[in-house]
Amino acid sequence: MTVVQPDAQQGPDEPDLLRDQFRQLLRYRVLIVAGVVLGLLGGAWTALAGGAAYTATSEVTVRSATFDPFSPGGGNPEKEVSMGSERQTALSNAVAARAAKELGDPGRVERLQDGLQVTNPPNTLVLRFSYTDGSPRTAATAANALTQAYLDNRRDQTQSVIDNMIQGYEEQLEPLKKQRDKLAEQIDGLGEGRALDTTLSVQSGVIGRISELNSSITKLKAVDTTPGFVVRTATPPAAASGPGLPLLLGLGGAVGIGIGLVAAWVRLVFDPTARSQSDVVRALRAPVLGTLPRPRRKQPRRLLAQGRVAEEYRSIAFRLAYDQGFAERRRLLVVAPRGPIDTAAEASVNLTACFVEMGRDVLLVEADLRTPGLAHKLRSAEGVRPGWARTPARGDNGWPTGLQIPIDAGESGAFDLVPGSKVRNVARALTSGPATRLFAEAESPGTVVVVLAPAVLSYADAIALADRVDGVLVVCDPREVRRDDLARVRELVSGAGGTVLGALLHSEDSARRRRVPDLRLRLRGRGRGAERPRPAADTGGTGTGRDTATEPPPGSGTATGGGADQRRVSWPTAGEGAGGPGEEGDRSGDPARPARR
């Protein structure tokens, strides 16, 4: 049994709160699954729509132009080469245009630039050319072409600088040569003296300058213009590059889970239903006395529970028996917040059987005076009563009529049922003096009165009974009931003078919400006086019943099981003495009647 007590002093721990929120998110499995499917579809579309892509890679080592490449003091090449500038040059239009011309497709410049990626590994003079294309051979050819185009472009730039410098030196050298020749003619015409010495000195300076320029031109012509070396040649890749279909599906699934969880969280935020036991406790300000296990698929519903469900009802009954508020009055009103009362009816019957097991004399009152039917349902749950009591007699004043039907709950024992009947004025019948005296039977020692009423928010019947029955047990499905409805139930019950003892939670699939089959449908076409065997599957959950049950025809003097205990309560009604023709027979000492405790 799960009991959640409201605690205003101490809230839930952080791990418990997170676990509770996660469990609430898992309620919206449809949204989470939809997110996963959407992510998988997106990953598959990305992998298949883009097609296979192949990436070929080549690498070159960049070097600067030097006069003596083998000289140990030739300078630091890392300072002479800017790798950032070289990377931008490799991505330029000039390199792409040269590569496109080499490939024989001058109009392919933009496509080459789109598929090219140039990177520089840290602390290296290496440029890595990566080209992506749908064909592995095309990718390798383009990568090699771009690499060679870069090297050729860099060599041409270096050679162009050298040629410009040589041309500048030669332009400076030409007038110096003319001046040297002119000075040589002047020297031939001068005699010994000061003028000759001056001319010779000028000629010597001019010749020295010409020698320097010639030396510079010679050095420039001897410069090594090698731009770099290809250290890795691109080859056609054997496999497609990129994440691939499996990885994209995995990424899509992960993203889809995130989308699904976000959608579930948004749905959770705006969900008005009582999502968890904590919400039920806060709305009712009463403990959760128990949670019924979810029924197995294709398992028939039984009015008297079996197995784990029966044990859960026993735990709830013991929990109520030791509750101080219930122990004083021993009256219990079982209601649902809204909608049908099928589960509330099952809870009232099973709790009644559990109180019988505890040695109490229990009276189950069906206060549903609009659509009564509990007596018919109990016939398929080991009810032992005479055939004439199939339709309880009604007095002139409506309900209650004074008729009590003994019901066999198997090994649990027996309890009396006051069936409901349709009346014109429900409020007058529920608040009448005979009804009040009926509920007052709980004042006797060892007696418990369990009352089943329609849903609180559907009709005011339960509110009219709240001050007479006092203790209220709310039966609800937290997935279907709204928190506002539970709070309103608490306010209405408290305002009417009653007390909410607790809540009984259940959870069922919508496809399983079916009424317990009526025995009348199974007996259609049979004689009313014939012997009707009962299948073993219809035995009660808290005990075992007889294999067969015989119902005599109406008006017979004998009744199988419980005929002697057809009795009337102590209130006076106009229908007293008109309980049915079976009352006129001798029903004393019937051995088939179950022993009452």
UniProtKB/TrEMBL annotation:
Origin: domain of life: Bacteria
Keywords for this protein: Membrane, Transmembrane, Transmembrane helix
Membrane-spanning ranges: 28-54
SUPFAM superfamilies tied to this protein: P-loop containing nucleoside triphosphate hydrolases (SSF52540)
Chain intervals for the UniProt region annotation (Disordered): 67-87, 516-597
Name of the featured protein: Lipopolysaccharide biosynthesis protein
